TrEMBL record:
The lineage of its organism: Eukaryota, Metazoa, Chordata, Craniata, Vertebrata. Residues 25-63 form the VWFC domain. GO terms for biological process: extracellular matrix organization; positive regulation of cell-substrate adhesion. This is VWFC domain-containing protein. Gene3D superfamilies: Complement Module, domain 1 (2.10.70.10), Ribonuclease Inhibitor (3.80.10.10).
Length: 647
């Protein structure tokens, strides 16, 4: 609080000045400037001199007299005396006194001064608030733009256009060494202007976490220029572009197209129309995302200046065999993930970095695999080669020998007629859907003893073309997908540890008795939808071995005329689908055992799109099911009203 004296009797105080300066005086809790004068009481004047207050009386008889001077002589004598006194007081203060009219300030003028100061303060506060709102809007805009980039990066982790929906999720595989955060934040400090919202996670079916490392250090580019970095927030570059760029690396921005996303560890230029890759040099970059462009040539030394690069995505470009030089990856000793999906390669690039743990070359035109195709890739865990031109004659049995740690292999959408031989013993997930496989030979899977997931859907397999001992060594196999084949019966000699069996979209007419009897502890999912099952194709002992384990049974879109026998013995069954059959009635003891007083474990029963007359259902036929809304009976096939209603 600082007070400004505008007359000898009036002082104005405001909070915008700073108190406590050198030479100031403190009077009644107020700070006065050096040489300030005031009148604490009539006929007395005080002055602040270098921090000390000195007061002395002054003549003021004429000022306080209630009578007017009686003569001109008195006026002439009184006025000079007062002027001399005041002049003497002014000289002692060392400064000229204000004019007479300025000393006599009315309260109205004081209030006006205070209001003016308050108005200025309010204007300043409003301006500061406007700046804060602008900064917040800029942050929101930045986050929206970053979400666009996240979506584009995630798209590269989704299977290519021709890839079918997976029944097996790589998240269910055991913990992988590369499933951690591969980007360290050693250079992060508490002064970095990076919020938690700036970190984002990119995940797609067992893929690792990626963080945008903090920014704010100099970057040296191939041009030799030093790009000065700042701690400012990112901003959009280029009109109408939906990609965020960071104004931290001016030299990078000069060599990359508008719309790129830059951070300390990331360069992302997806879908920017890039035709060639400029020569970049930055030891801090760990992720280079160049997907969905028109790149057809990469200079041999384009990536030599990125020695710490860990993830390189070149998917959906126009690369061919001549586009990738043997020396391209020579300096990338830390590269862990390489994505070359959606290009025009006819062979696997030579001299790949031995540090790779993931290699994706889906949707290309590769004509074959040799023993040297994956030479030196002893650390590789994931290999994806779907939608190429592989067949039994152009894949060597020694192709996979160098892959000592491979656990995940995709070979869908090729032209195999049999399961390839020479698969690694470490393999845990094998995808061979959408091929031309007709039979499963004995011994072909003898060495893959760690296999847990096997997808053979969309092939031409018949149960009589599966060797009796084909699965005998697959003691760890948990999920087997034989959907969309040519099976007529449920295959015998299934793997002993199987938990999920997918047999939908076949021509199955019969479930042989005891076919599941050897499985321990038993299936929990049996998918038999879209087949040709009739009531005479299901025996009383068809589900033997599944009585205590099966939780989901899918029999929809078949030719059943009544509730199948043996369902009462399935003590763990929770989901039962019998919709889209030709069932006409629901008899007693078909779904509820009248001899038991306990509720059924069933939580969902689908009986819609049959020929059931709901009025003829016995009142106790479904009484063991806890909630009636779990029973779907409408609509039936003969009804015009096709809206689902609860029973």
């Amino acid at each position: 609080m600082v007070c400004l004296c505008v007359s000898v009797v009036v002082c104005v105080c405001c909070s915008v000045c700073l108190a406590g300066g050198s030479g100031q005086c403190s009077v009644n809790g107020m700070f006065l400037f050096d040489r300030a004068m005031w009148s604490p009481q009539p006929c007395s004047v005080c002055q602040c001199q270098r921090g000390t207050v000195s007061c002395h009386p002054v003549p003021c008889g004429g000022r306080h007299s209630t009578k007017k001077p009686s003569s001109n002589a008195e006026k002439k004598e009184g006025i000079p005396k007062q002027k001399k006194s005041l002049q003497r007081t002014s000289e002692e203060g060392g400064a000229g006194r204000q004019k007479k009219e300025e000393r006599h300030v009315t309260p109205v003028k004081v209030v006006a001064v205070v209001k003016s100061m308050a108005t200025q303060n309010k204007k300043q506060e409003v301006a500061v608030k406007k700046q804060e709102v602008a900064v917040k809007k800029q942050k929101v805009s930045v986050k929206k733009q970053e979400m666009v980039v996240k979506t584009k990066v995630r798209k590269t982790e989704v299977p290519v256009a021709k890839r079918r929906d997976l029944k097996i999720n790589k998240d269910s595989l055991p913990y992988l060494p590369y499933d951690d955060d591969d980007h360290d934040d050693h250079d992060h400090s508490e002064h970095d202007d990076i919020d938690d919202d700036d970190d984002y996670i990119i995940r797609a079916t067992g893929k690792p976490t990626m963080r945008l490392a903090p920014m704010g250090r100099p970057v040296t580019m191939a041009t030799g220029r030093l790009a000065t970095t700042t701690t400012r927030r990112p901003m959009v570059r280029g009109p109408g572009r939906a990609v965020v760029t960071f104004p931290r690396r001016h030299s990078i921005m000069e060599s990359l197209p508008a719309g790129c996303l830059l951070s300390e560890s990331l360069i992302a230029c997806g879908s920017t129309g890039m035709v060639h890759i400029p020569i970049l040099s930055d030891q801090g970059v760990k992720t280079l995302y160049l997907a969905d462009n028109k790149i057809n040539k990469i200079p041999p030394r384009a990536l030599a200046g990125l020695p710490n690069l860990e993830w390189l995505d070149l998917s959906k470009n126009k690369l061919d065999d001549s586009s990738i030089s043997p020396d391209l990856f020579q300096n990338l000793t830390q590269l862990r993930r390489l994505n070359l999906d959606g290009n025009n390669l006819t062979k696997v690039p030579s001299i790949l970095p031995p540090s790779l743990v993931e290699l994706k070359i889906n949707d290309n035109k590769i004509l074959g695999l040799t023993p040297s195709s994956f030479k030196g890739l002893s650390k590789l865990l994931t290999l994806e080669l779907e939608d190429n031109h592989f067949h039994d004659g152009n894949v060597s049995p020694l192709t996979f020998r160098p892959l000592k740690k491979l656990i995940y292999l995709r070979l869908e959408d090729n032209k195999f007629r049999a399961i390839p031989s020479g698969l690694p013993v470490t393999l845990q997930a094998l995808h061979l859907s959408h091929n031309r496989i007709e039979e499963v030979h004995e011994g072909i899977l003898n060495k893959t003893v760690n296999l847990r997931f096997l997808d053979l859907s969309h092939n031409r397999i018949r149960e009589d073309r599966i060797a009796p001992r084909a699965w005998i060594h697959l003691l760890k196999l948990e999920s087997l997908d034989l959907s969309h084949n040519k099976l007529v019966h449920v295959p015998s000699f299934l793997p002993v540890g199987l938990q999920q069996l997918h047999l939908h979209h076949n021509q199955i007419e019969r479930i042989p008795g005891y076919v599941f009897g050897h499985i321990k502890p038993g299936l929990d999912l049996l998918h038999l939808s879209h087949n040709r099952l009739a009531n005479d194709g299901i025996d009383d002992v068809s589900f033997l071995g599944l009585y205590n384990s099966l939780t989901e049974l899918l029999l929809d879109h078949n030719q059943l005329r009544s509730i199948p026998r043996g369902l009462l013995k399935l003590k763990s069954l929770q989901l039962l689908r019998l919709n889209h059959n030709v069932i006409r009635y629901v008899p007693l003891n078909s779904l509820c055992d009248m001899r038991q007083s306990d509720d059924s474990p069933l939580v969902s029963v689908h009986l819609e799109y049959n020929l059931i007359d709901r009025r003829l259902i016995p009142p106790t036929a479904l009484s063991c099911i806890k909630t009636y809304h779990s029973i779907i009976l409408r609509p039936q096939s003969y009804e015009e009203d096709y809206h689902h209603e609860d029973y």
